[in-house]
Prior knowledge:
The protein is mainly α. It has one domain. The chain has helices at residues 7-19, 33-39. The longest helix is centred in the first third of the chain and has 13 residues, at 7-19.
Amino acid sequence: MCAWSAYQDWQSIDAAEVSGAKPGAPRRKFVTIEAMVAALD
């Protein structure tokens, strides 16, 4: 597993958190690094 991410990776993770939010919430945060990495696949 990589210990860093590129800005484009961060943007993808951010977009996945925002799109996974419940109505009225700004985002649904990932709670594990594994979930963040999985969002990049």
